[in-house]
Amino acid sequence: MYDCILVPTDGSPEGERALEYAFDLAQAHDATVRAIYVVSVAGYGGLPMETPLDGITGALREEGEAAVERVKELAPADIEVETGVLEGSPSRVIVDHARPDECDLVVMGTHGRGGIDRLLLGSVTERVVRHAPVPVLTIRVNAPESDDRTDQKQLAAE
User: Fold this and answer.
1) How many structural domains compose the chain?
2) SS3 for 122-149, per residue?
3) Which SS3 state, helix, strand or coil, does residue 85 take?
4) Which DSSP category does 45 fall into?
5) What's the CA gap between 146 and 123, in Å, rounded?
6) CATH code (residue 54)
7) Which helix (DSSP H) or strand (DSSP E) does residue 82 occupy?
8) Cβ proximity of 33 and 3 under 8 Å
9) What's the predicted TM-score (pTM) here?
10) Which runs of consecutive H residues, i.e. helices, occur in the chain?
């Protein structure tokens, strides 16, 4: 059913929860996991003109390389992992890579922000869900520590 699973990563330990789901699905479907880190260039607008952007971009790209390398480290040996560090608007880049001819599922975390935080910051996950041409599985990464699958079974029984 799935040949390629796209997993945007921000390099945070919390985001590793989404990876667990992606790896489980990849094993079940013999799929490739494509992990991407997007360097957001939108945040440069408020910097003073004399700020050397090459240094900032370089540091962010290094952070991205470390994040996607961590995905490779966490992946089970039987899963093929492709990685990339890209630049642009995170939601736009993710949607651009979530094409049926590229990847047929997106698995990504949501930090569960609500209220004013979501209004002020926007939500990359929400924009991806609204615009992606393929299914998007969202994983709440800051949920209380528990066995999610046990919780799902309990909900289904109720």
Assistant:
1) 1
2) CCHHHHHHHHCCCCEEEEECCCCCCCHH
3) strand
4) G
5) 25
6) 3.40.50.620
7) strand 81-88
8) no
9) 0.80
10) 16-29, 53-74, 90-97, 115-121, 124-131, 148-157
